[in-house]
Amino acid sequence: MKIVHLADSHLGFSAYGRVDKRGRNLREEMVYQGFKKAVDKIIEHRPDAVIHAGDVFHHVRPRIKPLYVFKQNLERLVDANIPVIIISGNHDAPKTLATVSPFTLYEGMNNVHIAHRYEYEPFEVGGYVFHCIPFCIDPEDYLEEFRKIRYTGNDVLVMHGMVEALWNKRLRTVGEHELKDSFLKRDFSYIALGHYHGQAQLAQNAWYSGSIEYFRFNEAKDEKGMLLVDLESGKVEPIPVKAKDMLDLIPVDCDRLSSDEITTELQNLCDDVDIKNKIVRIKLKNVSREAYKNINQARMSRLKSEALHLDVMPEFKDDTRIWDAETVDASSLPQEFEKFLRDEASGTPKAIQDDVIAYGTYLIGRIATAPGHGGLR
Question: What is the pTM of this model?
Answer without folding.
Answer: 0.84
